[in-house]
Amino acid sequence: MVKDQASNGPSPGESRKYRSRKQKPCDLCRKRRICCIREAGSDCCALCNTRGKTCTYLAPPPVRRRLPQESTQRSVSQSQSAISRSDQNLHHTLQYLGLSGDQDPYLLQHSSQQKLENAGHAVWACKKVNDNPEMPAQFTIFPDKHLDARPIYYPQNDVEGTAQPHKDELINAYFETVHPSFPIVSRSEFDPQSASTLYLASIYALSHVFCPEAKSIDPWVFLNFLGQAIPLEARNASLDSIEAALLYSQRHTYVFRAPTMPGLMAEIGNLVGMAHDVGLNVDPTNWKIPEAEKKRRKRLWWGIYMEDKWSALTLGRPSYLHDDQHNVPMLTTADFDDYQASNRKSRKEEISKRMFIAMGDLSIILSDVLSTFYTVRAVQMLKDMPSEEKDNCIFSFTNRLNQWDSVYSSLYHGNHDLFPDPTGTLQLSYYTLEITICRAVLRDKYDHPVRKRGEKMVLLVIEMLRTLQISRLRAFWWAVSKVNFSIVGAFMFSMLLTSIEDWEIDSWMSRITTYLKLLKEHSINFDTTKLACIRLELLSKVDHLMEEGGSNSKTNESSACMPAPSESTDNATAESREQVRLGDGNGNMTYSVDDPFEFVSFDPFGDSENLDWDALMGVSLN
């Protein structure tokens, strides 16, 4: 009987035609998780038929439905983020067409799809902004969803809710204090109602320290959101997101340690990549875009250029930008905002514009200095270069800096009576660049005439720091200034260690002591000098360790003369005012330095003596 029932079942070759996706399995098939195959018109499935079992269907199988978790998280994340972009209504992103890409701009200049408004729901379109056949300028247009612009892990938006009680005060503080020193945002065109959350968060993060009304707000709400959102926004870069990333790269330091701001150089690379995606490196003067956008593009490009070059200097890293890959003309005062509320503000804005232009011109010189003296190949090339050719190279740079100083020195030497005065960053950067050239030259030849030039710049920095007014403190916030102060201090140590005469050693010891005391004094209410304080403490401790090592070289003899940090602190505590000698070591230019507080020495090494250096280097290198 079983055999007959089995013969009535479907053969393996015929089994497929009996399968039905809608057929509910019997209990036996369901337990084995196999298809319940039934012959047409039969109440017994093939499995039960071959086993002689009664084919029963006792209960429906549990329905296992996959919850739309991904779509739910995506909608929740997007609703919470509530990101409003200037092009959100279009849901499209424009990307600049490079000359060497597979989408040849010389070919696509014949494309008929030339307008963004005609793109509609298309997955690709082309927009031509320049009719020049020799240098076509075009953008391809993609839907944001094709660029993964809003992934499910986009950070939750707590920015607006946090800033809302003091939103107006934060924005006013930005334009009153931050903007004069870094005037890339157009005040007349800025609309907080339509600005993106990313854009607003970067403004809040910079203005928070200058807004007493918002002191109760945790600034890390803004910084954490920016740190998570900017790398995602880089996938579909826009002028808003680039401006926000540029401002974020200038953020304030809240935790002061011996290292510089972690990950900054990688962020600069990300910022440069975003700039190239939207074609900021190409001159937009003849493009078919609004004049306001042309000006904004120029300001953004030169802001990124400055950030790249000065970060390369201060962090000792290669520059991301190559001068043969951009042709954006230098800024003029006409490229900035024309907003004027009063005569006093108008004068402050004029100084602010000129200061930013001067910083751009100085950055061009810096770029040439870095490529000439501070690349891996340049070190060997300079070593093999004839002395006469090297001196001509040095003279060309010092001559360019003299010309720059003759044009712009009135900005930071004049009596502006401005509050805040935004020119401190520019003045320190000029002195630092002069010292940067001296460092490169004096690596090989300690008695080069440029040594006197470096000594002069050190004295100017000390004098600048000694006479620093409160009007400058508020606008002296550029991130590069923190390390520039440290570069000056490191150069002073180099001058000390390469000194031969006793009077010169004593002179540099006095200058270092004075400089460190000034940094300590200002660091109470001026965060820009705190990092340099830590770095000089570190260098002082290194010299003290060299002294304990017992080396008999002339270098270490001069190092041994440098007091340890604890000794310096004790002497400062014992005397409320101490006469410190400046100048040429003969007693000229004396003044008093107040040291009214006890500076807690920072230990940059920690328990470094017990570190397993071999194991550490093995892990790092392997």
TrEMBL record:
<feature type="compositionally biased region" description="Polar residues">
    <location>
        <begin position="1"/>
        <end position="10"/>
    </location>
</feature>
<dbReference type="InterPro" id="IPR050797">
    <property type="entry name" value="Carb_Metab_Trans_Reg"/>
</dbReference>
<dbReference type="InterPro" id="IPR007219">
    <property type="entry name" value="XnlR_reg_dom"/>
</dbReference>
<dbReference type="InterPro" id="IPR001138">
    <property type="entry name" value="Zn2Cys6_DnaBD"/>
</dbReference>
<protein>
    <submittedName>
        <fullName>Fungal-specific transcription factor domain-containing protein</fullName>
    </submittedName>
</protein>
<feature type="region of interest" description="Disordered">
    <location>
        <begin position="1"/>
        <end position="20"/>
    </location>
</feature>
<keyword id="KW-0804">Transcription</keyword>
<feature type="compositionally biased region" description="Polar residues">
    <location>
        <begin position="550"/>
        <end position="559"/>
    </location>
</feature>
<feature type="region of interest" description="Disordered">
    <location>
        <begin position="60"/>
        <end position="87"/>
    </location>
</feature>
<feature type="compositionally biased region" description="Low complexity">
    <location>
        <begin position="73"/>
        <end position="87"/>
    </location>
</feature>
<feature type="region of interest" description="Disordered">
    <location>
        <begin position="549"/>
        <end position="585"/>
    </location>
</feature>
<keyword id="KW-0539">Nucleus</keyword>
<keyword id="KW-0805">Transcription regulation</keyword>
<feature type="domain" description="Zn(2)-C6 fungal-type">
    <location>
        <begin position="25"/>
        <end position="55"/>
    </location>
</feature>
<dbReference type="Pfam" id="PF04082">
    <property type="entry name" value="Fungal_trans"/>
</dbReference>
